[in-house]
C-alpha cells in the first residue's frame, strides 16, 4: 500500500515537472512575423504564449513574461486573419495598468482562436472576460484596481456579467 502511494506521489511529481518543462516558450525573438502566412503559422505559438501568461503571475520584473506579452501584442496588431476590437467600454476596466490590459488582450486572443466560428463581438467579450477575471482575482496585488474593475469582478462572481456589460 505504501509502495503504491509512493509510486503515485512520484508519478504526480514527475508529471508536474514535465508539464512545467512543457510550458517553456520557444525563443520568441527569433520568430519573424513578416508575411501573411507567418501569422497564421504562428497561431499555435500564440496559444502557448497566452497559456504561459495565464500560468504565470503578473510580475513586471519577469523578462520572459514581458517578452511573451510583446510577442502577443505584435501578433495581434499584425495578423490579417483576425480583427480584435478593443472597445472603450471594455478596455476602460483595465486601462489603469498595462499588465491588466495585456491579460484582457490575452484572454480575447485565446477565446477568439479557440472559438473560430464565433463572430459576435458581445459573445467574444463575455468569453474573454470569463477567462481574464478569474485569473486577475488570483493575483496578489489588487490594491491598484479601479472601482470599475471591482464592480466588474463582483458582477462576474454573481453571474451578472452580461447585464453589467450590456445593460
> Which spans of ≥5 residues are poorly predicted at pLDDT below 50?
1-22
Report the mean per-residue pLDDT as an integer.
86
Described by the principal axes of the CA atoms, the overall outline is globular
Helix content class: 55-70%
Count of DSSP H/I helices: 9
Strand content: under 5%
What oligomeric state best describes the polypeptide chains here?
Answer: single chain
Category by helix and strand content: mainly alpha
| Through-space gap between termini | 58 Å
Provide the gyration radius in Å. 18 Å
Sheet with most strands: none
Order of helices and strands: HHHHHHHHH
Number of strands: 0
Describe this structure in words.
This protein is mainly α. The protein has helices spanning 2-22, 36-41, 43-55, 63-78, 88-91, 98-114, 121-137, 147-157, 161-165. The chain is globular and about 40 Å long.
Condensed summary:
This protein has 167 residues and is mainly α. The protein has helices spanning 2-22, 36-41, 43-55, 63-78, 88-91, 98-114, 121-137, 147-157, 161-165.
Write the topology of this structure.
Blueprint: H1 2-22, H2 36-41, H3 43-55, H4 63-78, H5 88-91, H6 98-114, H7 121-137, H8 147-157, H9 161-165
Helix pairs in contact: 3-4, 3-6, 4-6, 6-7
Amino acid at each position: 500500500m505504501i509502495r503504491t502511494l509512493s509510486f503515485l506521489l512520484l508519478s504526480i511529481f514527475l508529471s508536474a515537472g514535465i508539464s512545467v518543462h512543457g510550458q517553456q516558450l520557444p525563443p520568441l525573438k527569433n520568430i519573424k512575423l513578416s508575411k501573411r502566412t507567418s501569422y497564421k503559422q504562428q497561431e499555435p505559438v500564440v496559444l502557448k504564449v497566452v497559456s504561459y501568461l495565464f500560468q504565470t503571475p503578473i510580475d513586471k520584473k519577469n523578462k520572459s513574461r514581458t517578452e511573451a506579452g510583446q510577442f502577443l501584442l505584435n501578433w495581434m496588431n499584425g495578423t490579417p486573419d483576425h480583427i480584435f476590437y478593443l472597445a472603450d467600454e471594455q478596455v476602460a476596466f483595465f486601462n489603469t495598468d498595462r499588465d491588466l490590459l495585456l491579460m484582457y488582450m490575452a484572454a480575447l486572443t485565446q477565446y477568439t482562436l479557440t472559438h473560430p466560428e464565433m463572430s459576435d463581438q458581445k459573445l467574444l467579450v463575455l468569453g474573454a472576460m470569463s477567462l481574464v477575471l478569474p485569473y486577475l482575482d488570483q493575483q496578489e496585488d489588487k490594491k491598484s484596481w479601479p472601482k470599475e474593475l471591482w464592480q466588474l469582478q463582483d458582477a462576474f462572481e454573481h453571474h451578472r456579467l452580461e447585464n453589467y456589460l450590456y445593460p
